[in-house]
Amino acid sequence: MRLRHKPWAKEYMEAQEHVFIQHPDQLKGKWETEFGNDHPLFIEVGSGKGQFILGMANQHPDVNFIAIELFESVAVSIVQKLVESPMPNVRVLTVDAKHLTDYFEAGEVDRVYLNFSDPWPKTRHAKRRLTYKTFLATYEAILPKAGEIHFKTDNRGLFEYSLQSMSQYGMFFTDISLDLHVSEPEDNIRTEYEERFSALGQPIYRMEAVFRPKN
After folding, report:
1. What pLDDT is stored for residue 2 in this prediction?
2. Per-residue DSSP letters for 96-160?
3. Is 69 known to sit in a ligand binding site?
4. What family does the Swiss-Prot or TrEMBL record give for this protein (predicted)?
């Protein structure tokens, strides 16, 4: 999908400082202060236009959520929705997932969501996949012991790769679905891509993976 550039996005988001965090490095270890509570903190890496994370935030008001999206022209859609319908338990960051340890202390994040990530199908681009071992190490560094990753995709190749990558890293799986919508859980929040691909009859793959505590 071609990304439509929105030159006004940066200025607009910076004016919404109650939602968009311009300097997240200054909040490392202090996210409880930012939200004003000690609720669990869940992040979504690659939030797109925000349908999933906003749905989750509405469903779970007792959890704090951070939407992480690299591109301002995409993230601005989340910010606009939060301006129109405020949710005190959501913040938005435009940062690179490679640098999450710059913004979160060890154990500060309780769960990571990866939804419909770019599959980067060419072998030479494997290091860019969000389930490559270096990304897994980054998530592990900010999650507590036995921290969880919840993952959804329509791409079978990426799903199989992720199962292998996580298994080789030493993670184990608490839930795997090869066609999520066959018996869709009532509390499943669909992403924009999920609705699109499901309408085309494509299966949605999902897993929950847990890091093994290190001695």
Report:
1. 53
2. -GGGGGGTS-TT---EEEEES-----SGGGGGGSTTSHHHHHHHHHHS-TT-EEEEEES-HHHHH
3. yes
4. Belongs to the class I-like SAM-binding methyltransferase superfamily. TrmB family.
The pLDDT value given to residue 6: 87
Q: Judge whether 153 is annotated as a binding position.
A: no
Reported confidence tier of residue 4, pLDDT bands at 50, 70, 90:
confident
138 is in an annotated binding site: no
The catalytic residue positions are 118
Residue with tokens 């939030």: 47
B/e letters for 141-159, b = 16+ CB within 10 Å, e = fewer, are bbbeeebbbbbbbbbeebb
Sign of CA dihedral 43, 47, 50, 51: negative
Confidence at residue 215, expressed as pLDDT on a 0 to 100 scale: 63
pLDDT tens for each residue of 33-87:
999 999 999 999 999 999 999 999 999 999 999 999 999 999 999 999 999 999 9
